[in-house]
From TrEMBL:
Lineage, highest ranks first: Bacteria, Bacillati, Actinomycetota, Actinomycetes, Kineosporiales
Name listed for the protein in its UniProt record: Transcriptional regulator with XRE-family HTH domain
Domain HTH cro/C1-type: 34-81
Cited SUPFAM superfamilies: lambda repressor-like DNA-binding domains
PANTHER family the UniProt entry points to: BLL4672 PROTEIN, BLL4672 PROTEIN-RELATED
Matches recorded under Gene3D superfamilies: 3.30.450.180, lambda repressor-like DNA-binding domains (1.10.260.40)
Amino acid sequence: MDRALLADFLRTRREALQPEDVGLPRGPRRRTGGLRREELSALAGMSADYYGRIEQQRGPIPSEQMLTALARVLNLNPSERDHLFALAGHPAPGRIANENELSPTFARVLGRLSDTPALVLSRYGEALGRNAAAVALLGHDYMRYEGLARYLVYRWYTDPVARELFPPEDHPERGRVFTAEIRAAYTADPKGQAREIVEALLEVSPEFAETWRRHEVGVTHHHYSKRYCHAELGELELYCQPVVDPERAQEMLVYTAEPGSPSQAKLDILVARTRNDHSLSP
């Protein structure tokens, strides 16, 4: 918990909020703008002394319930709310319920992106949207799965078909990447969907359990080329660039090849086959 930064953040947000913003009269004797401490504490359902001690950098660590109440009264957006929880030493609460529904912005992009494969994943690795080129590259539609099989990391450790996309010598690294990603989701929200995925994998996959025990973080699969195995065209070396929607904790992966390379030629063949295919909805 960073008491100084927490106090400063709450104070600046309180002073930026006007009485009329929360349904309070301004009153003729109010000399400064912003809410008073006692007004904010009353609206949040806590004592003025309790809240005052937070802004004075003393007192107990605010509970998740208190932080939720403060975020509500201060009209914090999701990013500000997550920041508030982090300053108080708590994991960020679950995002809005529609975080596992395709972002409208990503849906529009997918609808116009036809010259390169693109796939949208939730923070748990569930495919939320894709274009026809992505289905052609990956070999099948990632949105066809149900249950725990919806999540990429679960398929990697339980379904041999999931590994056919990568050369066998790359499998250990892929496993490290997928495990680190589900760890990041688990750390951000230990009571969320990641918990169910991790607990299930610990029961059924000794390989996952071994990789999980290494506690690796920050392992990335972006910004460098990776090899993909296509059933008809053979091996492609592609870059996988993420585009992030932080409000919904989603990322769109866009696959590209080095211009003029054999992989680019193969990618062009895939795109040409699917450019006129409008059977897939994002």
